[in-house]
Design a protein that fits this description.
By secondary structure, the chain is an alpha/beta fold. Helices cover about 45% and strands about 15% of the residues. The chain has a domain of about 200 residues: Rossmann fold. The chain has 12 helices and 12 strands. It binds 2'deoxy-thymidine-5'-diphospho-alpha-D-glucose (DAU). 2'deoxy-thymidine-5'-diphospho-alpha-D-glucose binds next to helix 6 and strand 8.
Length: about 350
Amino acid sequence: MKILVTGGAGFIGSMFVRLVLDRYSDDSVTTLDLLTYAGNPANLLDVQGDPRHRFVHGDIADAALVDELVAESDAIVNFAAETHVDRSLLDPSAFIRSNVHGVYVLLDAARRHGRRMVQVSTDEVYGDIPEGSFSKEVDALLPRSPYAAAKAGGELFCRSSFVSFNVDVLITRGANTIGPRQYPEKVVPLFVTNALRGEPLPVYGDGLQVRDWLHVEDHAAAINRVLRGGRAGEIYNIGADNERPNIEVVRALLAHLDRPESLIAFVPDRPGHDRRYALDWRKIRDELGWEPRRSFDRTLFDTIDWYVTNDDWWRAIRDGSDTFSNYYQRQYGWRLAAAGRDGETVTTS
Ligand code: DAU
């Protein structure tokens, strides 16, 4: 199969590219990626010399380019997206362009060429989930952040393309994913790298928000199952039953790194912060036989160890350009000041 992987230089996309090339010797992959701040050529270094992989620098909203690439492919898996909730609160416009309009452009090409498309979405489209309940694929979409609203918008175009035009499109809704090569604005890589630098770990609010933690290799394997065995027009939740409050994750992270809990800084909360996400993912397990392979501890500790070992990868981002530092200052400067922790660098070892 020839697969067009959009957003393939990102965190989950690059893991998926690697999985396909490793497992399917008859498959080939074209990665289309705009290399905005989170898309990183370094994420694909190990497949660079593979004759079954081709990299194209470009935009999913570029209809002519997308049409050409879709015509040459058998299927599309769309990872391209703006993904960070905090950035969507600062400026939602890029989210509408990638997560809604970009999805529409891909769907339009999939329709013209009769191709299968997997749209990689998120559990955030369900919104805040009350204690004890678990979101099912048939539940209402109740997004609460601009990011989640844009992802829900993209999903609705998928649904309408399936109903109106019979496009062979499927949707996956993944839980909080961690692992190698995640841009260090997300909580786990941010906190691991802050801890290694002896800087405060800015926990939003009371830190009792709950997320379900999924390893990126498990997530990529689930998307692969959906691509190869899923039913057209269907939605598949991808969870791990690893529900933990943030503060518990932060304490486990510090203990694993042997860093002090005094690094924790409780800072003003994210506006509209969803208290809990939790997925019922029995559908993908029962229909497609997928299950996560890692426990919570392995998911978290393997992730932490990767950042410890791959210092060069994250230092190039954190110290190598203004993009990260400008964002960090805007997002955390006033929060750390409000918590009385600004300008703090602690020697921890
Ligand atoms: O649930 C799936 C989603 O998981 C994906 O769709 C998103 O693309 C991905 O960013 C992630 O969203 P979250 O908002 O849950 O992830 P984030 O890493 O930003 O935050 C995880 C939790 O940690 C959340 O409750 C907010 C909290 N947090 C986050 C940051 C960055 C903090 O307490 N402090 C922080 O500095």
